[in-house]
Structures are given as C-alpha cells and as structure tokens.
Design a protein that fits this description.
Length: about 450
C-alpha cells in the first residue's frame, strides 16, 4: 500500500473527541483508520490532508455537476453575499430562479425553495397528505429520500429470500417512531402488479407514491417507461400523488431531469444537488392545484431558505446547464468511461452491466442489469466491496458501497481523468482478483 492517511488518522483521533464518529454525517465515517479528511477540491480532483490526490466520482453524492469550485458559480455566489444573506423577507431572484426551473421542467408549474433534499421531500409528503387527506405513502424498495422519520425505513433485502414473502420493513435508525411504520408501504421497482395490489388493498389510506425513476442510491437501477406509465395511471385511479424525487437526477440526466429523459410529468417533484453545484439549495415543484395548498393550510418555510449566496449560485449553475452543451459533454464522458471499464472487464472475463444514465451510472457484477433492488442480490457485490478500497489506494474515489452510482462532472472531461481512471481500474481489478484467488486457495487448504 502506497497511500498514507497519517494526517487524516491523526485528525480523526482528535475529531472523535468532539464529534460523534469524528464527522458531521454518518456516511462520511469509513472506519477509524480509513476516514478521509479533505484539504481542498477543484474540478474533478480532491486532495486529502495527507496530500493524496483523487479523481472523484462521488462529487459530494452528486452536487458538483460542473466540478468543484467552478469559478463562474463561485463568482456569482460571492456577488450573492453582497445582497446580505437572509432577511426573513423574499428577494426578486427567487422568482427569476423559479422561472428558470419552470422553463426547464414542464411539471414545475409552481416552485418552493428549501435548503436540502430532505426538506424538499418532507414538504412534498406533507403536501400530498394535505391534498389527498390520506396519511400513508409508498416508497420504492431501495429508495433513499433523506433523513426524516417518514422515509427512514428500508426493505431488508439482505435477509430476504428470493421467491418468498415481501422483505421485512425495518427502521433505518433508532429513534424513528414505530408508529410511522404503519404509514409506510414498500413496492419493488418495475412491478406494476405489486403496486396495484398494494393500492387495491390500502389505496384508501395512501396519499403519495414516492419514486426515483433512476435510483440514485440503489445502483442507478432504472424504471421502464411502461412501468412509469402504469404507475402514473394507478396513482390517478387511486387518488395518489406521484412524487418524483429528482434530488440526484434533476438537472443532471437531462435539462428537464429524469422526467424529460423518460417523457412524463410528475404531480410533484423535488430537486437539490446539481441545482446549486454544491451550494445548499433545494426545490419542491409541481402542479398548481397541489402547490397552492402551501399557504392555504400547509406550512412551509425556514430561516435559511433562499440564502442570497445559494440563490445566486443556483441561478448561475442552472443558467450554465440550460444554455450550454454541458450535460451532453458530461454524458459523453460517462459513456467513454463505462465503455473503457467494460473493455477491461471483458478482458478479465468478468460479467458486468451498467445501469442508469452515463452521468450517474451503477456498476453491477452480473451480466443482467437489475430491474429492482431484489435483483441486486444477484450481483457479486462482495467483489465490488473488495475493489473499491483498491481504487481508493490508486487515487480513484468511488463510494465503498456498490449501491452508490459513479457521478460525473463537466470537469472530468476537461482533464486527463479518463486515461488515469481506466489505468487505475485495470490495476484495481487485477489486484482484487489476485486477492480473491489467494483467499480461495487458503480457504481450500
Ligand atoms: N432524495 C434523494 C434521491 C437523495 O439522493 C438524497 C440525498 N442523497 C435526498 C433525498 C436527501 O437530500 P439531502 O441529503 O440534501 O437532505
């Protein structure tokens, strides 16, 4: 191993004394000798406290669509600070940004801003409950929709037996009120019969169907157009609001997000991440008749909504994404990268498939791409889990968990990321195979 994490480890031993797990988000803790602390990031690159340089494919879980510290966005943000921050009053720029979003996303008839994806989804669910008068909601198995209690539930696929009953539903955290379990139903992606059955039995209680058509927290597993059409028809039939969570796909997979890509319109949709290139801002948008409930019975707001810095950054980011060919460039880079990785895997005779969209693809070690989270069990994710740390050693940063897609930015195509990533990928695969063979040999002795 050539990479040293001496300073990061030293810092961890200090940080743990004041910060639970030594970090400010549980996902950032990778183990006491593996947690990375950032010195700085620029473009496609990130440097840790030890000076290790990484080509980053996490990009903060998606936000840095133009690359880290994009000078155009940062200049707009600095200008935004001159406006003064937050005032407990509105500014003109909110309308300008809402207009931009409306023109890019036809479903976004009205828009409300917040600071994070969590807040946007939380409000979307509240709004759907208020509009339909029904308190329960459906989540797609494998979906992640933020850190609020209504969605902090998961379908336990790891302990589920294929062909058996539906997976058990468990709380994703202690402290989530057990009573909320009764409000939460799960359905596997791309199974309209399952959804229909659920709605037939419980439709009178269900007000919202929450879906990421490209599952940004589950290998980028993708809904078929037919499934989306069926789901939409079922939602209409059973008086259920279809909430499309575009926190990861929005302003990334197309200017109009996954809705443009797949040719449909949500009742409500949520955005964050790419819309501000990393500055904290999110949006809830949707049908006028539903959105008008905000202020007419439904509460929404917050001290920090539409901070002038985040607003200015988002306005500039969306202008760039809307008026230039940036998203096509990102897509081209993702295609080249996945094609190169595919060639390498072919040479090693390893079965694989890529899922999702080139700008946020999932790599799956099985030749058949999964249609839902249940299928994910068929992949050799142990191989992925063994490969990811090898890539980190070689300066390629992907999520250690195979369910997180690889995120591209505009900056990756502007430097030598492609060649360096492919070279490292070939080496990481070779090392992982060698280790696997060695383990198998010692196990058989
Ligand atoms: N929805 C989706 C689809 C997400 O991917 C995330 C975050 N990864 C969230 C909601 C929550 O967003 P945030 O972390 O900004 O609260």
């Amino acid at each position: 191993m050539s990479r040293k994490l001496t300073r990061s480890n030293q810092h961890f031993s200090q940080a743990i004394k004041r910060l639970p797990l030594g970090v400010s988000s549980n996902f950032r803790y990778w183990g006491k000798d593996k947690t990375i602390y950032v010195d700085r990031a620029q473009g496609s690159r990130l440097w840790d406290l030890d000076g290790n340089e990484y080509i980053d494919y996490r990009m903060g879980y998606g936000p840095a669509i133009l690359g880290y510290a994009d000078p155009r966005v940062d200049a707009a943000a600095a200008e935004g600070m001159k406006t003064g921050g937050v005032f407990a009053l509105a500014t003109e720029l909110e309308y300008t940004l809402a207009q931009r979003i409306s023109s890019m996303v036809p479903a976004a008839e009205l828009v409300r801003f917040s600071n994070s994806g969590t807040e946007a989804v939380m409000t979307a669910l509240r709004l759907a409950r208020a509009y339909t008068g029904k308190d329960s909601h459906i989540i797609v198995e494998g979906g992640y929709h933020g850190l609020h209690d209504q969605v902090l539930w998961y379908a336990d696929i790891k302990n589920w037996k294929p062909g058996g009953e539906d997976p058990a539903i468990r709380a994703d955290s202690e402290g989530v009120p057990e009573v909320l379990n009764r409000l939460t139903y799960f359905t596997p992606l791309n199974d309209a019969n399952h959804l229909e059955d659920l709605l037939r039995r419980h439709g009178a209680k269900i007000g919202a169907f929450l879906i990421e058509p490209i599952m940004g927290n589950c290998c980028s597993i993708t809904a078929t157009r037919q499934y989306l059409r069926d789901a939409q028809a079922l939602c209409e039939k059973y008086d259920v609001i279809m909430i499309v969570d575009e926190v990861k796909t929005g302003f990334r997979v197309a200017k109009g997000g996954v809705q443009e890509l797949m040719g449909f319109k949500a009742d409500l949709c949520t955005f964050a991440k790419a819309m501000g290139n990393g500055y904290p801002i999110s949006a809830l948008a949707g049908r006028t008749d539903i959105m008008r409930k905000i202020g007419d019975g439904v509460a929404h707001g917050g001290t920090y909504t539409c901070h002038s810095v985040a607003l200015a950054a988002a306005n500039r980011t969306l202008q760039i994404l809307d008026e230039t060919e940036t998203l096509q460039q990102i897509e081209r880079y993702g295609r080249k990268l996945s094609a190169g990785m595919g060639e390498i895997l072919d040479n090693f005779d390893i079965p694989y498939s890529f899922t999702g969209h080139p700008s946020m693809f999932g790599l799956f070690f099985n030749e058949r791409a999964p249609g839902n989270y249940r299928d994910w069990k068929t992949a050799d994710y142990a191989f992925y889990n063994a490969m990811a740390p090898e890539l980190h050693e070689l300066g390629i940063l992907c999520e250690p968990d195979s369910r997180e897609p690889w995120f591209m930015s505009a900056a990756h195509g502007r430097d030598d990321s492609l060649e360096r990533t492919l070279e490292a990928f070939a080496r990481a695969i070779a090392t992982t195979l060698r280790r696997k063979d060695r383990k198998a040999a010692s196990g058989s002795r």
